[in-house]
Amino acid sequence: MKLNELRDKDGATKSRKRLGRGIGSGSGKTAGRGVKGQKARSGVAINGFEGGQMPLYRRLPKRGFKNLFAKDFNTVSLARIQAAVDAKKLDANETVTAEVLVKAGVIRRVKDGVRILSDGELKAKLSFDVAGASKAALEKIEKAGGSVKLPEPAAAAE
């Protein structure tokens, strides 16, 4: 077999319909576009047009907004972290950061940082360097003998 002998299987591709090629072809004259009118012409895009009636997208009220400055955190529970420690995927002596959690397979990718939530129990003494943690999670980590380093809040612009 050579590269120039490669072909699709028979029936894998359909040949395109040749429009406007005589009455015998079954799609001659108007080429399947019906007769006259806006849709028979070229360059027509009337999605959402309802014949002059107020379109649905204008009848419905606008709602909400998208916060451009919102942060998208990876949320990780203490139970998931403890499971990773038990499975020997996380080293208890190493500082837990977003990159370490990715390497351990706890999270898939680093977003805007990691936020620790308090679901489950933590037995291991771990030190965390993360973007955020809930109050209950902070208490559980400190109770287990660990520590959490959070980023400094930005000073208000003067």
Give the secondary structure arrangement, pairings included.
Blueprint: H1 56-59, E1 74-77, H2 78-86, H3 98-104, E2 114-117, E3 127-129, E4 132-133, H4 135-143, E5 147-149
State the secondary-structure class: alpha/beta
Quick one: biggest sheet? 3 strands, parallel
CATH architecture of the domain at 74-149: Ribosomal Protein L15, Chain: K, domain 2
Tell me the number of helical segments per DSSP (H or I, 4 or more residues long): 4
Mean pLDDT over all positions: 91
- Here the CATH topology of the domain at 74-149 equals Ribosomal Protein L15, Chain: K, domain 2
Helix content: 10-25%
| CATH class placement of the domain at 74-149 | Alpha Beta
The dominant shape is: elongated
- Terminal Cα span: 73 Å
Structure in words:
With 158 residues, the chain is α/β, with parallel strands linked by helices. The chain has a domain at 74-149: Ribosomal Protein L15, Chain: K, domain 2, CATH 3.100.10.10. It is built from four helices and five strands. It has helices spanning 56-59, 78-86, 98-104, 135-143, and strands spanning 74-77, 114-117, 127-129, 132-133, 147-149. The strands form two sheets. A three-stranded parallel beta sheet has the order 1-2-4. The model has no long low-confidence stretch (mean pLDDT 91).
Highlighted features:
158 residues, alpha/beta, Ribosomal Protein L15, Chain: K, domain 2, three-stranded parallel sheet, two-stranded parallel ribbon, 4 helices, 5 strands, 10% strand, elongated
